[in-house]
Amino acid sequence: MKTPPNAKTSGLATTLLPARWVQGLGGVLLVVGLILPWWIIQARTQQAVHQQTSTGQEVGPLRPEMVLVPGGIVLSFAISATEITQGQYQRLMGQRTSGACELPKQGEDFPASCVTWLEAAQFCNMLSRSEGLWPCYGNDGDDASLTILGCEGYRLPTSAEWEYAARARMHRSYAGTDDDTSVCDYANVWNDTAAFACRDGFTTVAPVKQYKPNAWFLYDMTGNVAEWTDDRTIRGGSWQSTIERTRLDASMPAPSLSAPGIGFRIVRSPTASERRSLVDYSP
């Protein structure tokens, strides 16, 4: 397999999570010889990530912003900061999603929804080829299968990768928070039916990046549209879900399902240069 291009060559906007922190004992991290409490490290992590996502790196019309996630219970990987948008999907695939459900007219910054698992896998292969990367799925037929997790192209996250990224190494019930009363700040969920009504101005799906991100600056990991994983399950809940149904430990197997509340985000393995910048966390 040829060496993957680095982020500059591939044209992807990549956020590198700080890699100089290695977890020590008792929830304390060692930082260049200094021992700091976890809450200080977490604050500095968020500040550093914010600075790196605000550097103005160019994101092309097909290319999502990618966030590099250091490994821990899973190997390191890069994940799209948002769900794949209607604009990204249409430009690459030449059409709106072909799922058998009706969509209201939406702008390019809305997440692509009504997507089957197969359509999401085909998008990954198409994007890989457009970047000159070896596709991760064996073919584009009904029996598309993952060739290898270490492939250089784009793919759907495994269920374990998805949950690891959503929690951002914290034992949260929802992406960004553990408090039921603050879920509406981070997620687009069903309005006025849950214990804590979310009156956010969006009665159905919302454009991406309308809510707070989690600690790794990933948006809409909870709510908006549920997301396909490589395991052919959907995670995260959607705008159609009550708060209780968007918990990060919830999943639903539905390999052929297509619905207005289902979309996806993508991952890829780190490039060689990205790997050199990482020090993975201990499991």
TrEMBL record:
SUPFAM superfamilies: C-type lectin-like
Domain Sulfatase-modifying factor enzyme-like residues, every copy: 75-268
GO molecular function, one term: formylglycine-generating oxidase activity
Name of one Pfam family that matches: FGE-sulfatase
Gene3D superfamilies: paralog of FGE (formylglycine-generating enzyme)
Positions of transmembrane segments: 21-41
InterPro entries in UniProt: CTDL_fold, Sulfatase_Mod_Factor_Kinase, SUMF_dom, SUMF_sf
Alphabetical keyword list: Membrane, Transmembrane, Transmembrane helix
Protein name: Sulfatase-modifying factor enzyme-like domain-containing protein
Native organism taxonomy: Bacteria, Pseudomonadati, Nitrospinota/Tectimicrobiota group, Candidatus Tectimicrobiota, Candidatus Entotheonellia
